[in-house]
């Protein structure tokens, strides 16, 4: 097994015809940079990450999720190839992780035909337990359908049992949720109201913010290793446990042994997340809250944990 030293990452600056992600796909995000916790051991494996529609559906900084997966996988000792999927091309079947971001209604309309053309492959990959992270607009399109504010219906892939309808009023602001990965933080900016089917699991319970529809107290949707969410930020750098879960699922799906994570220093990410939780949930201290009183006890417990971690 060959050894590698990872002290920086870079992606090709020119489109080479193979779909490799380039500076044109994510301006300003591809410069090399040093890593404080470089990996110097043997290569543990290789992962291929596909970014769906980086030009049409990545307007809220969601490329940062691709970057977080790439860098964190390398720090754990895995080689990474990042590929872009653009409209009019055939989605590869030899991928390990799929990431899709947010976009305007017009961006969703531009990818609609290509998404339908590659729908069978995406459904196959989802059924085969390939990890997927889809945010905002792509979350909506992996559901059953999305109806825009103007009334146009865009059919989805039905991978997640959710339906979304656009509204005139946007839901904008910071979010805290509680779920499998503990407290997670992010930022939402969407007009879509997303309703889950009766058996569709949510990513988490909203402790602060609006979530799927501002009414039912849930955020996102999960089926097997497919995660849909409205959390921007981007979400993965602020929530490293979530990032590692996607990497773990990808490695274990390859059936080449289990995920072998390194002991990474997440002090900065954890500190930032705990500060955000403490700041946003402070209103639960006095027994009051303007958001979701039914989860007051959960929010108070989250607030206590955040304060304890910062002492």
Automatic annotation (TrEMBL):
Compositionally skewed regions (Polar residues) per UniProt: 1-12
Domain CobB/CobQ-like glutamine amidotransferase: 48-239
EC number(s) from the headed UniProt entry: 6.3.5.13, 3.5.1.2
GO molecular function: carbon-nitrogen ligase activity on lipid II; glutaminase activity
Segment forming the signal sequence: none
Coiled coil: none
Pathway(s) the chain acts in: Cell wall biogenesis; peptidoglycan biosynthesis
Alphabetical list of SUPFAM superfamilies matching this protein: Class I glutamine amidotransferase-like
GO terms under biological process: cell wall organization; cobalamin biosynthetic process; peptidoglycan biosynthetic process; regulation of cell shape
Sequence positions that bind substrate: 170
A UniProt-annotated Pfam family: GATase_3
Catalytic residues (positions): 136, 232
Positions of the UniProt region annotated as Disordered: 1-26
Annotated keywords: Cell shape, Cell wall biogenesis/degradation, Glutamine amidotransferase, Hydrolase, Ligase, Peptidoglycan synthesis
Catalysed reactions, as listed in the record: L-glutamine + H2O = L-glutamate + NH4(+); beta-D-GlcNAc-(1->4)-Mur2Ac(oyl-L-Ala-gamma-D-Glu-L-Lys-D-Ala-D-Ala)-di-trans,octa-cis-undecaprenyl diphosphate + L-glutamine + ATP + H2O = beta-D-GlcNAc-(1->4)-Mur2Ac(oyl-L-Ala-D-isoglutaminyl-L-Lys-D-Ala-D-Ala)-di-trans,octa-cis-undecaprenyl diphosphate + L-glutamate + ADP + phosphate + H(+)
Known partners and oligomeric status: Forms a heterodimer with MurT.
Function: The lipid II isoglutaminyl synthase complex catalyzes the formation of alpha-D-isoglutamine in the cell wall lipid II stem peptide. The GatD subunit catalyzes the hydrolysis of glutamine to glutamate and ammonia. The resulting ammonia molecule is channeled to the active site of MurT.
Family: Belongs to the CobB/CobQ family. GatD subfamily.
Cross-referenced HAMAP family: Lipid_II_synth_GatD
Protein's name in the database: Lipid II isoglutaminyl synthase (glutamine-hydrolyzing) subunit GatD
Species per Swiss-Prot/TrEMBL record: Dermatophilus congolensis
